[in-house]
Design brief:
Mean pLDDT: 77
Shape: globular
Strand content: 35-45%
Oligomer: single chain
Number of strands: 6
Structural class: mainly beta
Low-confidence stretches: none
Largest sheet: 4 strands, antiparallel
Radius of gyration: 13 Å
Helix content: 10-25%
Distance between the termini: 27 Å
Number of helices: 1
Order of helices and strands: EEEEHEE
């Protein structure tokens, strides 16, 4: 596992992003600072053959069960769960 922290801008405010690499898969984890939601957004940063498997890899590495996920969406396909 590799972790780096980046500071950037997410409209309309600045954002801190944790970029994690696990088994060659890069993830970005960040909160929405301007939202009332306390969820953390997780993005798979490159195309994978199976995004579900990629997210499960991250959850397993963090010791978090799939029940911790409140929403799953795919920007490329427009699918949401």
């Amino acid at each position: 596992m590799r972790l780096s922290i980046e500071h950037g801008w997410e409209e309309p405010s600045e954002v801190d992003v944790a970029v994690v690499q696990i088994r060659g898969i890069h993830f970005a984890l960040y909160p929405l600072n301007t939202s009332l939601l306390t969820d953390t957004i997780v993005c798979v940063l490159q195309d994978t053959e199976d995004d579900e498997a990629a997210i499960n890899t991250l959850l397993t590495a963090l010791g978090i069960g799939p029940d911790a996920v409140t929403y799953r969406g795919n920007v490329r396909s427009g699918e949401a769960q």
